[in-house]
Write a structure and sequence with these properties.
Largest interface: A-B, 106 and 109 residues
Radius of gyration of chain A: 24 Å
Structural class of chain B: alpha+beta
CATH topology of the largest domain in chain A: PmbA/TldD fold
Distance between the termini of chain B: 41 Å
CATH class of the largest domain in chain A: Alpha Beta
Shape of chain A: globular
Number of strands of chain B: 23
Strand content of chain A: 35-45%
Strand content of chain B: 35-45%
Oligomer: heterodimer
Number of strands of chain A: 18
């Protein structure tokens, strides 16, 4: 670490205590981010930045508030914490607002999460440019290409957190992503567009840039001559790359906050079978090289594997200390880490063959869900499935229903887990889904 | 919601805007209030940022040392404040300060960008060298001094948010909560989220302009949860504007609360509409989301100069009936999307995108305007000093047409009315767009017959424009707190529309036969 972040966080804690806080947690962050974007044969955007920040959580006189700043000038920092404490004192007291209890800091795992690749800091301008050129050559290798952008995004971040009741921790990770976004001439004024990016903490784990570009081109070629799909009740196959966002919508209200506020269809379901017995979801912060891996959560709670749904039965919710106290629930963690969705035996091709006819969803377009009722309606594009094969591209369709009901009709899961996401899910097959189209 | 440490990390690292609120101790902020009260002849913010003309000239020279067509320094200080009321008490506050300077150099379509949060000469020179690395030419002539442009007056405030104490805000939040609770015994919970902010921007350009803009923002949201029998429903409403504290009048807040309660309670009776294609009536106001998604984004000139928008070859063509005129206008006083100057230092104004059915103009930043040989439309915006600007919307709306709301409803035999929304999205190239309807109505035989809820609507931009068959005379801008996201950057926007009939759109629904 280039500077003593822990020392800075400790100083912030001392400063805030001196300003009158009873308890305080301080986090110092630093990051470096580099962007190279190369469009149609020429470098278009280069961005190279370093950033810093301080966040404090203040507990004073039975009250609580939180504050962030990017201005770390010592004189002004003093004013910042003084004002933070004054703001806290101006609020109403709340018996549930307390700093994270020390016992939740205990038993912090020390497994090596392998989140740092030292070579990321050494990526040269020439290397980024070489990736861009390689991607560009493959991405534009088709006569229908109007424009293709190659992007390389890499950097690192580090943070240190210290609390007045004994918490101390540091986190560090690197990242490198690359890929391409491509637009093709289609019917009339329409363009077909799609993108594909891969990334991870470690450069060596990434597929070749040319392979990624070829996938991007293949994806957008598959969109040519898309038509509006039918209004139909049929089987839905959600591609593994798109399953993560649907799982995210399902789990969105699975928090003590939503439950305590009366805005969750997960209320009163712990121990109940709420979904298909095919559904198992585990929150796992300890996956080596996981996108959301960590040793402790945003409140300093030591990381542990947390089953959320087991064979359709709800086991746990995301419970932070504040809403846990309010709702009478034992804290687990208030913030999601990696999610592992239980997978099946079959490849995507085998799933499609089993399904026979239906709609294969390859991307979402807008839409939303009501966390209180679980009612959802989402725009989609994808392909019809005919005779067990991927048929022509379709779009301008919505899929509509209720999340709990939808996930009770989860019938098959693939073995094709999508690796470039914190939600590790395979393709999902749902029966009897309402689509609206032509 | 509780703001947790992880959220802070995300905020600090990624620069996404959190809704938070400014301090209440005057003279106790990052810089003192007196610094603003005694402006130098240059810019009211020179002293605020602790810089002067000579220093800016030095950094500009370094930034353009390898050549430039355009270059700018974007100084920004933003202070946001948020308060949360849940379960009857205001027991959580958040404040956030973002300060930094973004440095940009442009050569043709190429952009080099860097920023620093340490506003000192050595740090700015280092960032300037980093940004300039994209260029390979020679030093250009740079201004030795910068001419301050006249400050805009679209959202001048008498009391900055820094001088409004929490003790003034709490009663407003309590009023909102109490009014909501008293409206109906079915209401179980009320949450109130307060956000206010002051943003100070100073832009120095290679052309020698010095632009300063003080941008206030205020927003209040109320969320209502009601229970009837075993069923629970949640609804919300919010209002937002570039305003000061006095804007939160009882009347304005009451209207917001009543809307939230009505939207919540009606859901106990609401059903999903049938699925499929049907005529869709867009109620006046928030339905401007149609324009934002179906045409607005596709008219942003960065997509068009790259040829990636479905509208890339349509300028001058007839795209809608002659009574359809669609405008993006930044100089509407105090609207959430209003801007005196854009984030490249150009005067922000009115751009007619569609005039009497003819596609007229894209929304340009400096890069696209140069490529098209046009004047910029003042549409270059950025989320913060962390980002380079790009063409964006401000306040997007459709002007009044020849019909009435009553005529439009009477003209529909079987369709829906869309009234409130949560979000929308568009694919720029294919032109397919969606928006999510939270509340609406079924129309049968020319009459409103039943409430509906929770449906996504999907359509194709140019096709939907052609299918606007009736436009009423009741245009209004929505007062909701809309935020537009593009390429990872969020900016505040406004939208509006009169009551409009689109003859065919695809409605997400159930009851598929």
């Amino acid at each position: 670490m280039s500077v003593d972040l822990i020392g800075q966080a400790e100083q912030a804690v001392a400063l805030t205590k001196a300003a009158g806080a009873n308890e305080v947690t301080a986090t110092i962050t630093q990051s470096r981010d580099v962007t190279f974007e190369y469009r149609d044969g020429a470098l278009e955007n280069v961005k190279d930045t370093t950033s810093q920040g301080l966040a404090i959580q203040v507990y004073a006189a039975g009250r609580y508030s939180s504050h962030q700043t990017t201005d770390l000038h010592p004189d002004r920092l003093k004013n910042f914490v003084a004002e933070a404490v004054a703001i806290t004192r101006a609020l109403e007291p709340d018996e549930f607002r307390k700093i994270t209890p020390e016992e939740l800091f205990q038993n912090r795992p020390d497994v090596d999460l392998d989140l740092v690749d030292p070579t990321v800091a050494e990526i040269s301008r020439e290397q980024r440019l070489a990736w861009c050129v390689a991607i560009d050559a493959v991405a534009r290798d088709h006569d229908k290409v109007i424009s293709a952008t190659a992007g390389v995004y890499d950097g690192s971040s580090q943070s240190a957190s210290v609390s007045s009741n004994g918490f101390s921790g540091t986190e560090r990770s690197t990242y490198c992503w690359y890929g391409s976004e491509i637009t093709l001439r289609d019917q009339g004024d329409r363009r077909a567009e799609d993108s594909f990016y891969v990334g991870g903490q470690h450069i060596a784990s990434l597929p070749a840039a040319t392979t990624v570009a070829a996938t991007a081109l293949q994806r957008v070629l598959s969109r040519l001559n898309s038509v509006k799909g039918p209004t139909i009740k049929t089987t839905m196959v959600v591609d593994a790359a798109m399953a993560g966002s649907l799982i995210g919508r399902l789990l969105g209200p699975a928090t003590a906050w939503r439950v305590q506020q009366g805005q969750s269809y997960w209320t009163d379901l712990i121990g109940e079978k709420a979904f298909s017995d095919k559904l198992t979801i585990v929150d796992d912060p300890l996956i080596r090289r996981g996108f959301a891996s960590r040793h402790y959560d945003s409140e300093g709670i030591s990381a542990k594997v947390l089953p959320i749904v087991e064979a359709g039965v709800i086991r746990n919710l995301y419970v932070d200390t504040y809403y846990g106290r309010k709702a009478g629930m034992t804290p687990t963690t208030g913030s999601a880490s990696n999610r592992r969705v239980g997978s099946g035996e079959k490849s995507l091709a085998e799933l499609l063959a089993d399904v026979g006819n239906g709609v294969y969803v390859t991307s979402w377009l807008g839409g939303n869900a009501d966390s209180t009722t679980g009612d959802f309606s989402l725009g989609i594009r994808g392909h019809m499935i005919e005779n067990g094969q991927i048929a022509g591209p379709v779009g301008e369709m919505n899929v509509t229903g209720n999340l709990r009901d939808l996930f009770s009709r989860l019938e098959i899961l693939g073995n094709d887990i999508y690796p470039y996401s914190a939600t590790l899910s395979p393709s999902l097959v749902f029966a009897d889904v309402d689509f609206s189209g032509a | 919601m509780t703001i947790k440490r992880r959220d802070f990390l995300g905020t600090v690292a990624a620069g996404s805007a959190v809704i938070t609120m400014p301090g209440f101790l005057s003279g106790c902020g990052v810089q003192t209030a007196t610094a603003i009260a005694s402006p130098t002849p240059d810019s009211p913010f020179m002293e605020w940022f602790g810089v002067d003309q000579a220093l800016i000239a030095k950094v500009m020279s370094e930034l353009t040392s390898r050549g430039a067509d355009e270059a700018d320094l974007y100084f920004q200080h933003t202070r946001n404040n948020a308060l949360t009321l849940e379960d009857g008490i205001v027991s959580s506050a958040n404040s956030s300060i973002q300060q930094g300077v973004g440095l940009r150099v442009v050569i043709g379509e190429q952009t080099g960008y860097a920023f620093t949060e340490d506003i000192t000469l050595p740090s700015m020179l280092a960032a300037a060298r980093t940004a300039s690395a994209i260029a390979t030419g020679r030093q250009v002539v740079t201004p030795q001094s910068f001419s301050p442009l006249k400050a805009g007056d679209l959202y001048t405030t008498t009391v900055p948010w820094a001088d409004v104490g929490i003790d003034q805000k709490l009663p407003v939040m309590k009023f909102v909560e109490q009014r909501a609770k008293s409206k109906d015994p079915a209401i179980e919970k009320v949450a109130v989220y307060w956000g206010d902010g002051d943003e100070r921007v100073m832009i120095a350009t290679l052309g020698g302009k010095l632009v300063s803009d003080h941008r206030p923002m205020a927003r209040v949201t109320v969320v209502v949860t009601a229970k009837k029998g075993g069923e629970t429903q949640t609804g919300f409403s919010n209002i937002a504007a570039r305003e000061e504290f006095s804007w939160f009048s009882e009347a304005r807040l009451s209207t917001m609360v009543d809307e939230a309660v009505d939207r919540t309670l009606i859901q106990f009776e609401a059903k999903r509409p049938p699925a499929g294609e049907m005529p869709v009536i867009l109620a006046s106001g928030a339905s401007g989301i149609l324009l934002h998604e179906a045409i607005g984004h596709g008219m942003e000139a960065d997509f068009n100069r790259k040829g990636t928008s479905i509208y890339s070859d349509m300028i001058g063509k007839k795209v809608a009936e002659s009574f359809v005129t669609v405008v993006d206008q930044a100089d509407i006083p105090r609207e959430r999307g209003a801007l005196n100057y854009d984030d490249e230092g150009n005067k922000a104004g009115r751009t007619v995108m569609v005039e009497n059915g003819i596609l007229k103009s894209y929304l340009h930043d400096k890069i696209s305007a140069k490529q098209y040989g046009l004047k910029p439309t003042g549409s270059g915006r950025r989320e913060s000093y962390r980002y380079a600007p790009m063409p964006r919307m401000s306040c997007t709306f459709m002007e009044d047409g020849p019909h009435t709301k009553e005529e439009i409803i009477a003209a529909v035999d079987r369709g829906i009315i869309c009234e409130t929304y949560t979000n929308g999205q568009v694919q720029i190239g294919a032109g397919d767009y969606t928006f999510y309807v939270k509340n609406g109505w079924l129309v049968e035989g020319g009459k409103i017959t039943a409430p509906i809820k929770d449906v996504n609507i999907i359509g194709n931009g140019p096709e939907s424009l052609k299918r606007i068959t009736m436009v009423a005379n009741d245009a209004r801008l929505d007062t909701g707190g809309w935020t537009c996201g593009k390429n990872g950057q969020s900016v505040p926007v406004s939208q509006g529309i009169p009551t409009v009939l689109v003859s065919k759109m695809t409605v997400g629904g159930e009851n598929v036969s």
